Amino acid sequence: MFDVAPENFELEDTGMYVCVCHALTDRHVREDAQAGAKSAGAVFSRRGVRPVCGKCVGCMRSVLDETRKGRSDQHQYHDEPECQAAE
Ligand code: FES
Predict the structure, then answer these.
(1) Which atom of ligand 1 is nearest to the CA of 20?
(2) What is the value of pTM for the model shown?
(3) What would you measure as the largest C-alpha separation in the chain, in angstroms?
């Protein structure tokens, strides 16, 4: 049989992509929200990037809102229209 993963290999849970232009995940957005970011612009600013297509802004706002409401689990609403625009 093939060994496909080295011993002690752990798949890192990196989250789901919110911004494909900058490879930002919901985890990144939550980190930024917990550090005080209140808008998509603040997330871009904290990450040192500028919006490219802007299709992620609605989804990013949704993740920011979830975080503000104290939901710390992985982004649950990726099927909603504001999130589908980024995919
Ligand atoms: S998906 Fe975020 S700027 Fe394009």
Answers:
(1) 1
(2) 0.76
(3) 50
